[in-house]
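Supplementary material to the annual report.
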Amino acid sequence: MVINIKLKSTSAERVASSLSGRGFKTTRQRDSIVRIFAAAGQHLSAEELYELVKKAEPGIGYATVYRTLRLLSESGLAHESRFEDGFTRYELSDSGSHHDHIICTGCGQIIEFENHEIEKIQQAIARKHHFLVTNHKHEIYGLCSSCQRKPQKE
Amino acid sequence: MVINIKLKSTSAERVASSLSGRGFKTTRQRDSIVRIFAAAGQHLSAEELYELVKKAEPGIGYATVYRTLRLLSESGLAHESRFEDGFTRYELSDSGSHHDHIICTGCGQIIEFENHEIEKIQQAIARKHHFLVTNHKHEIYGLCSSCQRKPQKE
DNA sequence: ACAGTAATTGAAAATGGTTATCAATATCAA
DNA sequence: TTGATATTGATAACCATTTTCAATTACTGT
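Predicted assembly:
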């Protein structure tokens, strides 16, 4: 007897079904991209994702990765942020909760944070200037504990 | 009788003297760029500044504007920020005080803000992750009051 | 004032991340 | 299965920014 209780769908499944639900076609390439993206963890650049996907899908084109990333982004399934290092990084958005980033300028490590207090102050500031907030971006740059102990690149 | 008390130097003078003090040469082009930058107000992109400078200095090259902007930036006399609209904007830094931005996605208007409370929380968050903060960036995107009343571009 | 030296300039080409083009191919609905 | 339409991969185009390089200019010491 097999008991198979599906507690919750994986990110990849959730994204895939969300895409097909929106009228987009399911393709082998998109499946690979989404699955690998979900498995790889957060904050990938298009190039990093391309390199990973190429292992599973050797013929994949650069443009397809970019297109899929934009598709996910426009569908609200992924979120893109431009960091100071010059290129755009993406992360699958889990359940709409917004978070911000602490970035180590030594090793590139990215940590997420979320702070309700800051959001509240932010709203108050916007209100003072009669702004309707649609979005925000808060990045803290610094050195992680291990990079504080290493010499910095010149 | 002429009473001419110089209360404080202009931004342009301050920047120019700071540059020559650092061993950089004073050139007509740099003077124009800095003077026009100081007079034009804040948050200019390289292209916008180039267009302005061209009126006073018709032969000016694109590269010179970029180079000067980078020079100012590296000397700490200007600050550059990459907004979501794709290109980098600069502002002359007045007295080292850091501030953040509220950007209207309708009309591009940029308002500055500064909030000590947020900075404190930020430090606490960084400390919790054992980070040494060197920098931060906080941008609030939204619609200014007048853009809230206009239809949005499709 | 003048020459020597090193920095700066303008024009144009190069760079690098990202997007558009287009013919071939794959997906989906009927 | 077939036809309409979306997607793909390769490549060219984009576009902000940077580099290159020869000509010019600013500063230093005389």
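Chain B touches chain A at residues 82, 84, 102, 104-105, 111, 113, 115, 117-118, 121-122, 125-126, 129-145, 148 (CB under 8 Å).
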